[in-house]
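[stage:ingest] chain + small molecule (molybdate ion)
[stage:ingest] validated
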Amino acid sequence: MPTPIPASEHRARILAALRPLPSQGVPLRDARGRVTAVDHHACVAVPSFDNSAVDGYAVRAADLIGASAVCPVILPVSSAIGAGQAAEAVEPGHAAKIMTGAPMPEGADAVVPYEATDRGSDKVSLNLSPQRGANVRCVGEDVTGGALVVAAGTRLTPRHLGALAATGHGTVDAHREPKVAAMSTGAELVQPGQPLAPAAIYDSNSFIIASAAEELGARTRCVGGVPDEPSRLRDALEEQLDWADVIVTTGGVSAGDYDVVKALLSSHGVWFGPVALQPGKPQGFGLVGRRRVPLFALPGNPVSAFVSFELFVRPALRLLQGLKPDGRPARHASLARALTSPAGREQYLRGTLTDGVVTPLGGPDSHLVASLAQANCLLRVPAMTTTLGAGAKVDVLLLEDAR
Ligand SMILES: Nc1nc2c(c(=O)[nH]1)N[C@H]1C(S)=C(S)[C@@H](COP(=O)(O)OP(=O)(O)OC[C@H]3O[C@@H](n4cnc5c(N)ncnc54)[C@H](O)[C@@H]3O)O[C@H]1N2
Ligand code: MOO
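[stage:predict] done
[stage:export] tokens:
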């Protein structure tokens, strides 16, 4: 039996084998969730022209010195400018009606809001004395032309899309979305919704893996319940190898007589071995086929598959998209009750974290899938720790922050 390698070493080997996917031009409307491959700079300044911040009258501040409610200044109104309209120049001693967002006319240097006027059409009574620049939004005040708007390696959210649109980007240069095939193996698997035969169980892994990959921005295919026969597995893999950027199998990697994933893929350059991890001890990883597609062979127990995804597949999918290959955000917490852990295996328990206190959920066993639904964190026990008392400080990984 080979010596288990630390989980951190397995992750480092995986990440060392991967490179970000190539980038492509993506129409802005399709770009939410994509990751920028390059810095994006402003194509235009924002605002790109001086304009009014209010509905009111564009004036020369010098014409209104001393104006007040008791001593208003009356000026002839020479024009009216709406948003999107070209502005005529305003002569000294004149005012122009102006709407919010309309370009400032030449000659004017301030805007008096309607509320400080009588809203006159031919002439207007203005009852305040504005500073030069009052209520004027200046060119480049938000961003100058050519300035950085969104840095490379940013996952695009509505906030970023707004800034990119405003600065003139119709498309963005973004990494391709990883295409992930989630393939569960095992003769016992039945798809949920179907009747269960004796000794059969419902396939939960392909749902865990595909949806977790989607949360990370992947496009996915679910291949549920591939039987434990080498030829069927080979066919199923070949079908996905031309399409997928990543294949994640579950099941068939331990020591059983029907563990065909390990048997078939060992001869195709996939490394299999124990990792000092619970759940998630038996693992496989390699680059498969002509396109050298990264293949993760995860253990079949659903909690093992989930934890393995979190520790190994998550950072890999991030790296492929040009993001830092981080795991879930970690926090320190106090343990609600004492626990024991096996020596020599880093352990991850499901837990609930409330106000800095973490309560382990269910037991450590990796078939206890229902407790995953209650968990909001994974509680990490280091490999060399075998007992922890109530109140001990532990690390937890937060599960609710999706990306
Ligand atoms: N003699 C040994 N037996 C086992 C060892 C070992 O070292 N020596 N390791 C154990 C550990 S740890 C794990 S984890 C499992 C991993 O097993 P496999 O990856 O080979 O997976 P299977 O045998 O196919 O299945 C294990 C278990 O999980 C259920 N399963 C599988 N796929 C799904 C699915 N898609 N949805 C729901 N449940 C699934 C399956 O029915 C089994 O109960 O091996 C231990 N054994
Ligand atoms: O590694 Mo298994 O995942 O301990 O149950």
